Amino acid sequence: MSIQAQAFKFGDDINTDYIISGKYKFKSNDMNEMAQHAMEELDPHYYERVSAQGGILVAGSNFGCGSSREQAPLVLIHSNTKVVLAQSFARIFFRNAINTGLPVVECDTTRIDEGDTIEVDLEAGVVKNLTKNEELPCAPLPAVMAKLLADGGLAAHFKKNGGFAL
After folding, report:
1. How many distinct helices (H) and strands (E) make up the chain?
2. pLDDT at 105 exceeding the cut of 80
3. Cα 60–61–65 angle (5° rounding)?
């Protein structure tokens, strides 16, 4: 699975309240509505910029720290964020992302700048910065996680296969 899109760059320690502010978490269960507020505390125009064309969210270390709510990866999916690249992820966010169908990849993001065109090959474990003509190696996802993502997340995998078929 290969994904190509523009980079939207953020820093370290992006917690789940930055991804979707706590003030929205209990106002609605409609992820399309909540997605309009994705990343708004750090970039009030993130949704407007990413929703039309899709994008790759790029961050530093410890992305997704904070609460364990699934709304964080879900609002990114519904905002048209195609994949999240970070130097490291909070463990619970990483699992929630895979379970909900949001691709997440650990790699060195220091050479990626805002607006760069990035291509991510999830199966090969390769991230290419097409703007700078650079390749950033990363470990491919384990086969189990790749299968869950290919099926659209854990719930979609269960529906498709009548249970685990890994």
Report:
1. 8, 7
2. yes
3. 120
Looking at residue 122, what is its pLDDT? 87
In a domain? residue 139: yes
Q: In the structure encoding, which two tokens stand for residue 88, read together?
A: 């490291």
Whether 166 is covered by a domain: the verdict is no
Which residues in 120-156 are b (16+ Cβ under 10 Å) and which e?
Answer: bbbeeebbbbeeeeeebebeebeeebbebbbbebbeb
Rounded-to-integer distance, Cα 31 and Cα 61, Å: 26
Q: Which domain holds residue 73?
A: 2-161
1-39 confidence digits (pLDDT tens): 789 999 999 999 999 999 998 888 677 788 999 999 999
pLDDT in tens, 110-155: 999 999 999 999 888 899 999 999 999 887 888 888 888 889 989 8
Total domains, the chain: 1
CATH classification at residue 12: 3.20.19.10
What are the φ and ψ backbone dihedral angles of 49, each rounded to 5 degrees? -75, -35
Q: CB of 146 within 8 A of CB of 155? A: no
